[in-house]
Amino acid sequence: MTMMNARVHSASRGWAQRAAAAAMAALATGSAFAVNDLKGGPGVNQLNLHEPVTNIARDQMWLHNFMLIVCLVIFVAVFGVMFYSIFKHRKSKGAVSANFHESVAVEIAWTVVPFLIVIGMALPATKVVVAMKDTTNADVTIKATGYQWKWGYDYLKGEGEGIGFLATLDTEQRVSSDSGHPEKVDNYLLKVDNPLVVPVNKKVRIITTANDVIHAWMVPAFGVKQDAIPGFVRDTWFKAEKEGDYYGQCAELCGKEHAYMPIHVKVVSAEAYTAWVDGKKKEIAAKADDPNKVWEQAALIARGEKVYANNCAVCHKPDGKGAGPIKALDGSPTVLAEDKMKQVLVVLNGQNNGAMPSWKQLSDTEIAAVVTYTKNSWSNKTGQTVQPSEVLAARK
Amino acid sequence: MSAVLPPHGAVGGHDGHSHGHDDHHDDHHDHHAPTGWRRWVFATNHKDIGTLYLLFSFAMLMVGGILALCIRAELFQPGLQFFNPELFNQFTTMHGLIMVFGAIMPAFVGFANWMIPLQIGAGDMAFARMNNFSFWLLIPAALMLVGSFFMPGGAPAAGWTLYAPLTLQMGPSMDGGIFAMHIMGASSIMGSINIIVTILNMRAPGMTLMKMPMFAWTWLITAYLLIAVMPVLAGAITMTLTDRHFGTAFFNPAGGGDPVMYQHIFWFFGHPEVYIMILPAFGIVSQIVPAFARKRLFGYASMVYATASIAILSFIVWAHHMFATGMPVTGQLFFMYATMLIAVPTGVKIFNWLATMWRGSMTFETPMLFAVGFIFVFTMGGFTGLILAMAPIDIQLQDTYYVVAHFHYVLVAGSLYGMFAGYYYWAPKWTGVMYSETRGKIHFWGSLVFFNITFFPMHFLGLAGMPRRYADYPMQFADFNMIASIGAFGFGLMQVYFFLFVVVPAMRGKGEKAPQKPWEAAEGLEWEVPSPAPFHTFEEPPKLNASATKIIG
Fold first, then answer.
1. Could you tell me how far CA B475 lies from the centroid of its own chain?
2. ipTM for the complex?
């Protein structure tokens, strides 16, 4: 099994490179020359599945190669017969048509034989299905939450319990995409601010859910793809055998920024993981904002500007004008309202069936800051300040 | 097409077999057959309605094609050059909806309208006025679908599968889209009832079910599928509608609803739907291959049983579209096994076609080219289907370009090629003129080459993990996307060529005059009437020979 896999894999890669080179030369685009394979992510003109780093992915690769070979053999045999017939049994070659048109024996034969072949294919697949679904005895359990359009990670069990953060696409890459002439970097659309960090050779269980619509968490090198469904939890698992960076993207249509919520998993050694967990915990302790702290307006606005750029500007635009169905904040009656809690509630709970999603995952301080910022930016000059304690009180 | 026919010219159709009634009939038609625009708006003649369906579906094919080219233009290079991602999602959604509900399905109904009465020796469809209604319902539905681009917020952008809860976020055009699909569903159901009643009740004496042409058989089975599943789709989108406006929470998790339930309901419709789009093509190919191999169809009975098994199996495989939703292990295994089982009857059909060709005396006019092209390329789509059926592999390939490649191999190289084959085969009967063989060949080879340039690289993109419905993609995918885009434009141009250089001349009556039976070994009652087929055929049930393929006396 492994031998066949290794052979097919190396053969196909060799061919891949030659074909890729030929294709590029033929097109003479020049554009892709600057781009290299991304380790743990897609290769340039990659022809096959990603190089597997888990048992499951290896089995999938084996199954795919096995199926490809069986299908190719059948294909060549069947169409060999067809093309032989096409070239031999032509009227122009003087072929006279025979008169047979029925044979129960033949019909039974070509029903039973494919049936047996199909059973032969299903048996090895069954083993892998059962293995894929076995999420028991995980060393680390992490919840991945799909948001429009980012991933939230919460370490629920195992080393690192309590850590939680959001992973967003690098904003410069997003801007670069809009420009129409993105910078040719190897990790284009795959670079996130906070990659998920997991230990090598440990069974990691990923619980998926979503906040708004269905997303899907996928990492091809791990052989993992699991829908993240709002209101429901699903799980999957992987045990990465090699340290390194691995990439994936959201695989279920989730709205306009669907292409811009990548997944980046860093697999590190046990020691490095422990060090990362310690660092992260300290960082969290230091960063924890006391919701009862009373802020100066200017400080809140400065903080809010960052929160806005990271979370709101994608839709509402940096100038607060919105676009299409996305409402403008600049001059919005909700933002300008006398009752400042009106806007706080929209940010906390969302509106229009989630077209404006709920942002309750942000901290009280962040929400207070971003509301204060929008109330005092562009043409909005309310002079109002929202304190974190007020947001805390509004949370229900 | 029959635009060139005088509505009551009856070009010698009566001379053949209904002497005693000529006067009476001519009188009758002179007084009642409408002319000008009334002929089309009030059409009750199956041939006129067939023509309307075919022209409508070609128009929708062009609209859907333009949307496809917008998608490919945006994907030509990494980065967003032409459209914002929201508009891109609208393109992918509307491309899917328009092609499925506006192009492929009505086109097959058009073929059914034209050919089923001619093939079974019936005077017309059973319910002529309902036939008119089911066609004209499509027009407002199509206008609403296309017009949704101009509604506030743009067209629906939730994918043609319209998964909840994303549909709950869509603007007002979503409601327009739902309404349009309801109307199209009603139209399809009426069309199906018409086809079933026509086939079951109006066959000429002596044409038993097991002597029926394969096209009529596949459509009979398809019509039952349609009646079974269109109401299911109607239910799914109605629940979406009430979730959006009337405070229900079928699919809205915030109210205790289940988004996955939508997928189950949708795919319970959706999977039989894909067979609805391919079975009539199987029927067309099953008629063309024997005609050009000059040899009877091998295993007629097993072809009928295989078609029926595919139809029945199509009801128990729907959740193979949902392996990534996280089904229990038994669910994944059941749907994996059931899906792989479909390969068996499909294989039987391929083998039967091959056995029909084997030791025949073949010629390769355009209909046969498209039929053989169909068998060859459709089988590739069948094999990728088998690969996708395996749950562990599907986990890697679900929602990637591999799936896009797979279903375009079965829907474009399958359904569309089947229809092109049928057009070249039957258009001489419709129009009374032969097409140009050279132009037919250019159309075939051009389409075949560009089709593969477009969709073959998508297998690689999918294996490498490029998700579908992406407006922009990592740099490593750039070259294959560029190749696919070039192919797509070529493929689109070939279809424009087909319309301008094959269809338009035929409609104008330009070309060599078609004999009654242009194909040496074609069998069936449609070749027993003159070309072009007169406005009214088989007003009196014909007397048939023992194999029900010829009129005697």
1. 36
2. 0.88
